[in-house]
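Notebook p. 47: complex prediction with fe (ii) ion.
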Amino acid sequence: MLDWDDPFSAPVTGSEPAPAAIEDNSVADNSPATEVEAAPAANEPTSTAMPASVPEPDSASVSSLPTANVAPVNPDDKRVINGMTDINQLAPFKYPWAWDYFINANKNHWTPLDINMAQDVHDYRHNLTMEERHVYENVLSYLTTSDILAMRNIGLAVMEKMSAPELQIYQARQVYEEALHTWTYQHCIETIGLDQSEIYNRYRVVPEINQKIQLANNRLSSVLRSDIDLRDRDELENFVMAYTFFGGIFEGCWFYNGFSPIFALQRRGLMKGTAEQLQYIMRDEVLHASFGIRVVKQIIKEENVKLDPIKVQQMWEEAEAAEEIYASYILRDPILGYSKEQHIGQFRFIANRRAKQLGHETPFPGAEATLPWLDEQANMRKEKNFFETKVTEYQTGGALKWD
Ligand SMILES: [Fe+2]
Ligand SMILES: [Fe+2]
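Predicted complex, structure tokens below:
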């Protein structure tokens, strides 16, 4: 059954289909770090590979096409990046797990208009303390900026570098989902009646939010260039590091952990509509993170990439430092049921999980879960009656087995 926290699992296996890639969660956390790093380069381009660009046949010239160029794509020739096969042929798949991600992503379909926000309007005006409003507003301010960054990263910097269509298909869905998330935050901001100009601009005037965005922006800027040649080893390593950052940290930790202050309000019966919206988003983000991690591992295997473990550890520590500054700001005054110590502790715990999935050394040894209820938010067990407010047409999501 689908584990929304860790839906990818099977070790990377060259051209072999990954069995039950989405639903079997028994392998991912057990994958030894050496498995990826010791993997040989796979599937070098062969002399029979198709050119990257194949002209569209037209009726007048079909009979004159050279037969050597019209054979179907051989899946063994596909590569995540630097591939030479026809990008317009979806199947046969080399990465069937990527198609499974696309199918599963479509089972989590909603719009923010499906969720009743009336009680949230009342809660914000009458039941939240000033300190809780500070948390709520700044979390939304951070998230909405982040989701636009996430959309631009996957849509503009990553997707164009993929050379297998089954990967691009899921990433196209991911681009849509990031836009949907932005709509969701906008719907919350608008419904609650917050000052939109002020909220959207906050990441530029609050240094504690800005420094997290800057870290991400620096990674994005380094790969959002049209002149990148991923056959250059330095460019390749930088691209892998950037994708690792966005999949493993930005989505896998910062987003995963970023919703929890609102979930803490929800657990006290406050801002439940917003929290329900974020639960939907969290499901998407878990898939984004695990897909990104899987793609990164596949690139590392195919291209025989050796990441510098010192740079990797530095990346984790930078992310932790940035998160600590952010948490100290949004939780500068205590609120009931949630603290900055819990927030940063949970970050370290989740970071260790993502690092293990990526095959990195454990960046924060000994970190323990400080928000043991957070994983339940991702898995959203049916007894939470998550769908009780949903209109009946949305059967695809309700038909899933969540646990
Ligand atoms: Fe998102
Ligand atoms: Fe995402």
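Notes: The two ends are 7 Å apart (CA to CA). Confidence is low (pLDDT under 50) at residues 10-57, 381-403.
Next step: compare against the earlier run before touching the bench.
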